[in-house]
Design a protein that fits this description.
Helices cover 18% and strands 14% of the residues. It is built from four helices and six strands, in the order H-E-H-E-H-E-E-E-H-E.
Length: 148
Amino acid sequence: MQLHELRSAPGAKRSRKRIGQGIGSGLGKTAGKGHKGQKARKSGGVRPGFEGGQMPLTRRIPKRGFNNARFAKQYQIVNLQFIEDRFETGAVIDAVALQGAGLIRKCDEPVKILGKGDLTKAFTIHAQAFSAQAVKQLEAAGGKAEVI
């Protein structure tokens, strides 16, 4: 098979539905919307979850228990393998340096260093949190993990 012989699978490419193109098209006059009613109007329809005025399911079901989602701290995660690729031995690494290297998006949000990958260079890293594996690897390589 050559590049010029490639074709889509049969039935994969369908022409779009051209509504309102006359009575012979099968979708003329009311354009497949039927006669009158809410869903026949220009901006007709209801929002997702609307049940015609009946109390929606999401409001009928009781809410119980505690959910930590509102209070959980969201960390920007960086693995040691990426730090090793982008920094020289003996570098002092903080959020600004990580942002400059393209490893995190915002330097004002908390950073957590994880221990994925093998570390051979010694670094001093300043971050809000470290995994136990990351601290172990940093110290084994002769570096330091400093919690801000």
